[in-house]
Write a structure and sequence with these properties.
With 203 residues, this protein is of the alpha+beta class. The protein contains 6 helices and 5 strands. Bound molecules: zinc ion (ZN) (2 copies). The site of one zinc ion has 6 residues, from loops.
């Protein structure tokens, strides 16, 4: 039963409505090369992977344009702006998805309920910093945007992720940013204008 509930929770958090894809696809200037998706892949994984790939393509294009325009020194700012733009593009869809028929989006408390904690730990087996192997149950559940009642920094599957102590400090270091674009789909940006995309249920 718990397993079924977890699966349902992951599904609720990860479905990518057509409208979101439309927003992202619209923003693509060129079709690029599409990688074939295995037909046996679960629909949820496919949707999130599509979003992740689209984000990556958009950021590559920003970097490409910055180099062409000799604005490499502005890269961190340009990449940061692009990630925030993507986040804004999908925000309404994400909020609607999380909120469902509930009167408000997210839980009123700072501390996530046990069920939500289990869902997040199932979604990410480890700290969401790339290459970090700290098991999620030994991490803090970090509010990607700092928690404040009535702001985007809510206690919800779209704003929580396991982050170990060490990488919590990284997150707070100058030039580092962490965005959660979709539940479980996170983008780290670095002081040099690089980025790392973290998928839900990464191995
Ligand atoms: Zn949410
Ligand atoms: Zn870590």
């Amino acid at each position: 039963m718990i397993r079924a509930d977890l699966a349902k929770g992951l599904l609720n958090g990860a479905v990518l409505p057509d409208a979101v894809r439309a927003v992202l696809v619209q923003a693509q200037a060129e079709p690029g090369e599409q990688s074939d998706v295995a037909p046996a892949a679960a629909p949820v994984e496919t949707e999130v992977e599509t979003l992740a790939e689209t984000i990556d393509e958009r950021l590559h294009r920003v970097r490409h344009d910055a180099r062409l325009g000799r604005r490499v020194n502005e890269l961190p700012r340009l990449i940061g702006r692009a990630v925030r733009q993507i986040q804004d593009d999908v925000a309404a869809q994400r909020d609607g998805l999380c909120q469902g028929n509930e009167p408000q989006h997210g839980h009123p408390s700072y501390r996530p309920p046990a069920e939500l904690r289990r869902e997040i730990e199932a979604r990410h087996a480890t700290c969401v910093f790339p290459t970090c192997n700290q098991p999620s149950r030994r991490c803090d559940l970090d509010h990607t945007r700092a928690w404040r009642p009535g702001t985007p920094g809510i206690t919800c599957r779209c704003n929580l992720a396991p982050v170990c102590r060490r990488h919590h400090r990284t997150k707070q270091s100058p030039g580092w940013r962490l965005h959660q674009i979709w539940p479980g789909l996170l983008v780290w940006t670095t002081p040099s204008g690089a980025w790392h995309i973290v998928r839900p249920e990464r191995q």
